[in-house]
Amino acid sequence: MTTPLKTAIITGATSDRGIGMTVAQRYAREGWAVVILDLESSRGGEAADEIGARFVAADVTDEAAVNAALDAAEEAGPLRSVVHCAGRGHTLRVDVA
To answer: How many Å apart are CA 89 and CA 56, to the nearest integer?
Structure first.
């Protein structure tokens, strides 16, 4: 197996319909090495397996964890893209008066 010429690390790529997963799928189709960075409790491993990517568990608010994830991404090939799509979601009710 040859080393990809480009590597991308993408946060928040675990939702089937999200921007992060869409970008990850596109990069993977174009032959990039893709590293998905998300919380350990996410479906990151499953999402990565679906597109042939690598999953690194990390919290984007933890500098040391993010640095370790960046190091892991660089092991796959030269890091050429960082896509930050991590978000915080919860249900919110909006009352309109």
So the answer is: 21
Other beta carbons less than 10 A from residue 4's beta carbon? 18
How far apart, in whole angstroms, are the C-alpha atoms of residue 50 and residue 63?
Answer: 28
The type of residue at 93 is R
Each residue's pLDDT tens digit, 57-93: 998 889 999 999 999 888 888 999 999 988 766 666 6
Q: End-to-end CA distance of the chain, in Å? A: 61
Distance CA 25, CA 21 (A): 6
Whose structure tokens read 């999200």? 18
Give the C-alpha separation, 67 to 1, whole Å: 26
Nearest to 17 by CA among 7, 25, 28: 25
